[in-house]
Amino acid sequence: MKIVSFNINGIKARMPRLLEYLDEQKPDIACLQELKSSDETFPANDLREAGYGLIWHGQKSWNGVAVLARGGDPIERQRGLPGDSEDEQSRYLEAEIDGVIVASIYLPNGNPQPGPKFDYKLRWIERLESRARELLAEEKPVVLAGDYNIIPNDDDVFSVKAMANDALMQPESRQGYRRLLAQGWTDSLRTRFPAGGIWTYWDYQAGAWQRDNGFRIDHLLLSPQAADRFVDAGVDKEYRAREKASDHAPTWVRLR
Question: Which end is more exposed in the chain, N or C (fewer Cβ atoms within 10 Å of the end residue's Cβ)?
C-alpha cells in the first residue's frame, strides 16, 4: 500500500500534473493539501474518472485538504480539528480506507513570527497532539500525512542560517513536532533516511529548485501498528521538475 502526501498548491492549476502522477505512480491513497478551492468548485469528477474515490474539505482561495483512494471510497471520520469552535480554516481531514486510518494535514505556516499567525500555529499543533493521542488509543494502523510546515532538524534544510528566523524552524515549532513523536509516532521518511538531507519542498524564488535549496516539511507519521507494516518511504522528486509543478514533491510511505 503506497500512501502519498502531496501539497498540490492549487488543484485547478496543477490538475494535469496530479492526474499525470496518479496515472504513473498509482498510489493507493493520496492525501492532498493546499487545494485553494471551495467545496463547490472542487474538480471531483476528474479524479473519479481517474479511478479514485475521494472526500474533500475545501476553502475558497486558501487551504483545503482531500483524501483519495484508488478503486474505492474513503470513509470520513473527522472533518477539522476539535478544540477551537471559531477556527474556520480547512486544514484537517481524516478517513479510513481498507482498515488504515489516514489524516490529510495542512498545518499553519506561522509567518511572520512572532505574531498572531505564529500563535495560531502553536495552538493548532496542540490541537493536533490531542487528536493524535486519541488515534493512538484506538491501536489501529494510522498515518498522519501532510504538510506540517515544520523543519524538524538542522539536516532537514539546505541552510540553517537562511531559515533561522522562519516560523518553520523556531524552537516552539520543533518542540511541537517532537512532542508528537514522543507520543509514539514514527517519522517514516526519517526512518528511511536517518542522515537527513532529503527535501520535499523547493521555493519558486531565487532558483531554489535549480540550486537544490530545499527542505523537508512534508511528513508521514506512523502509529505503532502502521510502523510494524513499514516497507519503505521516499520522495518522488522528479515531479517537482515538471512544467507548472507544485513547489512540493509527492512524499510517500509504503506499508505491507
Answer: C
Is 153 marked as a binding-site residue? Answer: no
Consult the annotation and say whether 147 binds a ligand.
Answer: yes
247 annotated as belonging to a binding site for a ligand: yes
Considering 21, 92, 106, 148, which one is annotated as catalytic?
106
Q: State the number of CA atoms in the 13 A half-sphere of 65 facing the CB.
A: 27
Query: Among residues 158, 244, 163, which one has the least CA distance to residue 196?
Result: 158
pLDDT band at 219, cuts 50/70/90? very high
Selection from 100, 171, 92, 99 nearest residue 130 by Cα: 92
248 is catalytic: yes
Name the amino acid, one letter, at 237: K
Q: How confident is the model over 48-79, as pLDDT tens digits?
A: 999 999 999 999 999 999 999 999 999 999 99
What is the pTM for the complete model shown? Answer: 0.97
DSSP strand E in the chain: where? 2-7, 29-33, 52-57, 65-70, 75-79, 92-97, 100-106, 142-147, 186-187, 201-202, 214-215, 218-222, 230-235, 251-255
Do the strands 230-235 and 251-255 form a parallel or antiparallel pair, or are they unpaired?
antiparallel
Q: Which fold has domain 2-255?
A: Deoxyribonuclease I; Chain A (3.60.10)
Q: What is the pLDDT of residue 82?
A: 94
201 is catalytic: no
The pLDDT tens digits of the residues spanning 132-156 come to 999 999 999 999 999 999 999 999 9
d(CA 149, CA 170): 11
Residue ranges of the domains in the chain? 2-255
**Residue 39 labelled as part of a binding site:** no
Question: Is 250 in contact with 6 (CB distance < 8 Å)?
Answer: yes
